[in-house]
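Much of what follows relies on a compact textual record of a protein's fold. A complete example follows; check for yourself that the lines match position by position.
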Amino acid sequence: MKNTQRRRLPRLTLPLGLGLFIAACGTTPPGPAPAPLTPAVGASLRQCEALAGQFRFDQTRIDSAAPVAAGGLTLGGQPVAAHCLVKGQMHARKGSDGRDYAIGFEMRLPQAWNGRFYHQGNGGLDGAVRPAEGALGGGPLTGALVQGFAVISSDAGHTGAQTAVFGLEPQARLDYGYQAVAKLTPMAKALIASAYGKGPDRSYIGGCSNGGRHAMVAASRLGDQYDGYLIGAPGYRLPNAALAQLWGAQRWTPLATPGATVKHPLNPNATIPDLGSALSAAERQTVARAILNRCDALDGLSDGQVQATQACQAAFDVVRDVPACSGARDGSCLTPAQKTTLAQVQAGGKAANGRPIYSAFPHDIGIAGANWATWKFVNAVALDPLSVGTVFTAPPAAPVNFASADIDALLPAISATSDTYRESGLSLMSPPGHEQPDNLRPLRARGAKMVLYHGVSDAIFSAEDTRQWVERLNRSQNGQAADFARYFPVPGMNHCSGGPATDQFDLLGPLVKWVEQGVAPQAVTASARGAGNPGGANAELPADWSATRTRPLCAYPAVARYNGTGPAEAASSFTCR
């Protein structure tokens, strides 16, 4: 067997927060952890409709400002309290392509405000002003708006109708990458001051997927503008992840049923190759069972979940542990070609010269989730060719053909610039200094905090990539990163939610408590979304789980381990250690 078939994720060598003094030689220690910032003080809304005519800010137009009665909006089955809905746009202009561009936004201002501002980062290629609910990812029942925050949401500078072309317009690329957030931030704070008679005492930014990337980029570029950063499944190397998707799709294609197709997710009149036939739902369940057989008990209890993620990477091997087919495929086994391809795709892929395309993906039971298959087999064909071709390369062109895409040529293209496109795709999308995030020291010094979370079975943005960033951050902070940044992996969870996981949790509340009271989060309770859940049931929960199963999410590198006694369905029976 080739070594690429048995590649395992690197083991953690030194735990976070224990002082990596070897890596710190010759550097200046970051100093003691700062005192918590003063808590926010709430206020009542002074005006709503008048904002449409009275509010003034450079390059800003308010289109409407209207009250929304209590219960006029619901979130997770709960009525949202009375608030003011403001809609508008910033920096309206005629693009170099002749199209009209602007940064569209909406802001929801609670009648009873808690004194805090939340910037909601949205997902995908943006292009839509989603309701400013303060969505947190992870299937929570409440968002920031329900908790009393003033919340802004935007389209990041382009509309859905421009999704296929905005990457060809230089300024629209910049707005999508990071400039829209920078432009919206001071305007939103000024709008809050006009509505309440005072600006926000504390400001937070968060989201999942590309929204998590927005928050992560803001930590590097706008470290003085926000006090808390809630970073979910951050695609901080989104161009690399998209290339890895294309690379993987090319390897699944020979194993797919010839001529089989499925509907295109964006065009109901079009079809795409059925790559899911290369690794069926039954076969993915077989892989998940093999992972459980090796890894379920590593946390002290066989309960259908793998809490000890890093230990599992050392224990599990696709080629050795998944049943091998001796005859035709019947869902209970994998062929040698399937095993080889799965191992290669999970390893993140490599260019012909051996250069890694992206991070490895952890082996985890969420491979059985429908969302895992959607990203690997559908979006890799329908969406990633668009983003790679029109947004992440310079100069951009038309969407690439996934089957014929030259990955070796595209890999340097995401780092390229031109006279017109002066920032590369990687520069647009990634936090400056993410390779060695020493630039976050000022953020730490003033008392700001970061909370990250990531589904271990995320199929598009790797939880391993986030873990490695956390390790680099810790080294850059002389082993003291846990003073201001904590990472919570979510076992079994797919991209932002779903999968066989306890995927309902609130990390915003603990982040606020850390910023404003100095209480660092170590264990946060997450629950399953079974039948009757007001936020919507998760259809992929195993039948033998309680509908309300709870587990602690543990700050990395701690693992939720069974105490040896207590009910198996309760978080109280586990300790992070």
Notes: Residues 170-196 form the longest helix (27 residues). The radius of gyration is 23 Å.
